[in-house]
Automatic annotation (TrEMBL):
<dbReference type="Pfam" id="PF03861">
    <property type="entry name" value="ANTAR"/>
</dbReference>
<feature type="domain" description="ANTAR">
    <location>
        <begin position="163"/>
        <end position="224"/>
    </location>
</feature>
<keyword id="KW-0614">Plasmid</keyword>
<keyword id="KW-0804">Transcription</keyword>
<dbReference type="GO" id="GO:0003723">
    <property type="term" value="F:RNA binding"/>
</dbReference>
<dbReference type="InterPro" id="IPR036388">
    <property type="entry name" value="WH-like_DNA-bd_sf"/>
</dbReference>
<dbReference type="Pfam" id="PF13185">
    <property type="entry name" value="GAF_2"/>
</dbReference>
<keyword id="KW-0805">Transcription regulation</keyword>
<dbReference type="InterPro" id="IPR029016">
    <property type="entry name" value="GAF-like_dom_sf"/>
</dbReference>
<dbReference type="InterPro" id="IPR005561">
    <property type="entry name" value="ANTAR"/>
</dbReference>
<dbReference type="InterPro" id="IPR003018">
    <property type="entry name" value="GAF"/>
</dbReference>
<protein>
    <submittedName>
        <fullName>ANTAR domain</fullName>
    </submittedName>
</protein>
């Protein structure tokens, strides 16, 4: 396994991505992958609020993080409500505040949890969560790195959902989530056709999009609509 990419390299690639009709789901996936590599966290997930203020997954390194944020009160929801970072260095101690979250997270092998806000000026767009395999997994400098990545995600999401509109950003966040829903539908089609797990199906979908230069959501939409041959996508080599 190679050395993690320096933060500056990640930021340069992210800024380069924010041009033209960029792919917000792919950007989010790059950022959560980079978050784990740069902070040493076990897994990371990027969640965006829908029009009801409910957090919904946009990208994750492991989908097991999804119910821990979407369905259970914990650090992610706390950060979204308050707009401030949340640090739970020891989930055993955090069980006093978030018993359900701590119990479910520990069952999945996590021992610490962190969340930083996705923010744009005074608007709160969502959260970036990091789950650690050990207690005290992240230190202050690593949390600053996570916040930087969260800020890049917020800028990208805002650019994606607002251009060329002028409505309040909170009213437009479902646009980004719609892309994720389309990707998940295509992922299900590929998983069924190719007898793959969901992560394997997503990997094939993402690999084909990157190899052909297509937006992930556009490729997924073609698979769902039947205008893209799922068999061709299934032949895409797995990403390393």
């Amino acid at each position: 396994m190679g050395a993690p990419p320096p933060l500056l390299d990640v930021l340069v690639r992210s800024v380069d991505t924010l041009t033209g009709d960029f792919d917000v789901v792919e950007l989010a996936q790059q950022l959560v992958d980079a978050c784990v590599a740069l902070t040493g966290g076990g897994d990371a997930g990027l969640f965006v609020a829908n029009h009801r203020g409910e957090l919904r997954l946009l990208a994750a390194t492991d989908e097991r993080a999804r119910p821990l944020v979407e369905a259970i009160d914990g650090p992610g929801r706390h950060t979204y409500r308050t707009g401030t970072r949340c640090v739970a260095d020891d989930l055993s101690a955090a069980a006093v505040v978030w018993p359900d979250f701590a119990r479910h997270a520990r069952r999945q092998g996590y021992r610490s949890a962190y969340a930083v806000p996705l923010r744009l000026r005074t608007d709160r767009l969502g959260v970036l969560t990091i789950l650690g395999r050990t207690s005290n997994a992240l230190h202050r400098s690593q949390l600053r790195v996570a916040q930087t990545l969260g800020d890049v995600a917020a800028i990208g999401i805002a650019q994606h959902v607002l251009r060329p509109r002028v409505e309040p950003i909170g009213d437009r966040l479902p646009v980004a989530l719609n892309d994720r829903v389309t990707v998940e539908h295509a992922q299900a089609v590929l998983a069924q056709r190719g007898d793959l797990t969901d992560p394997e199906a997503f990997d094939r979908l993402r690999s084909h999009a990157l190899r052909t230069g297509r937006r992930l959501a556009d490729l997924a939409g073609g698979i769902v609509a039947g205008t893209v041959d799922a068999g061709i996508v299934l032949t895409a080599p797995a990403r390393r």
